[in-house]
Amino acid sequence: MSVFDDVQNYKSEGSHLVPYPSGAVIPQRDLGKTPVLEALHLGVDFGGLTAVDDFSLVVGRTEIAGLIGPNGAGKTTVFNLLTNIYQPTRGNIMLDGYSTAGKTTAQLSHMGIARTFQNIRLFSNMSVLDNVKVGLHNNTPESLLAAVTHTFGYRKWERQAESRAMDLLDFFGMADLAGEAAGSLPYGAQRRLEIVRALATNPKLILLDEPAAGMNPSETAELMVNIRRIRDTFQIAVMLIEHDMKLVMSICEGICVLDHGKVIAKGSPDEIKANPRVIEAYLGKKKEDGDHAEG
Question: Cystine design at 103: which of 107, 159, 185, 265 (Cβ 3.0–4.6 Å)?
């Protein structure tokens, strides 16, 4: 059995991939709109080691995109490049039509990109509500001085922020946990809270780094529903790194496959499942004609 067997593809309206002028493919419904992300010939070197080489990808404005590959393929490095944790040695990144060159991670957040990490990074001793409000501070119109002196304007914004945070928690079925310490939540709920906090920054693109890691099948199924709801409700793009192939093949419209820092395939779930180079990269050997790869 292949590592890509026993998965079902989720089809939303306009999810069929069509050519984009640069030669990439995006969902049909996103044609005529500026892509939320254009990564062009990205590369990064650490000393004499090339970690990522000639990485190019276009993500449509409302696309659910997947970035997959074997362990050590360079997937998290790509996310670090897209969020300027690492500065690319080569290439360009355009976010909503604007270059991200020289921007800090905070500036990128204001531009509309948010992410979660492999390892949960919540403020464990703060409440669930306050964790979400941290994300909302990305969009406060008030100054630091106003926050320190608690001006009328700042107090008004705080009330609005709390209301917005509760709305987001309610959207994910977590409103009843608002007063709990984030670190006391079950693992799956902490993962969910990370996504809520990222969503609170009002992103145009949210990057999810192994969001299903450590989840049981029920939690993973709930995650798939939530990712679709995020895209459909907020009309934003989602890009995820994930090893759960059932999740990836079920909800992603476009998938990019990395191996040893290089893109080896791009396409729809059906195209990726049938690609011999992808199968070889995952299984470590070529799938011979007539053979059934074990997975």
Answer: 107
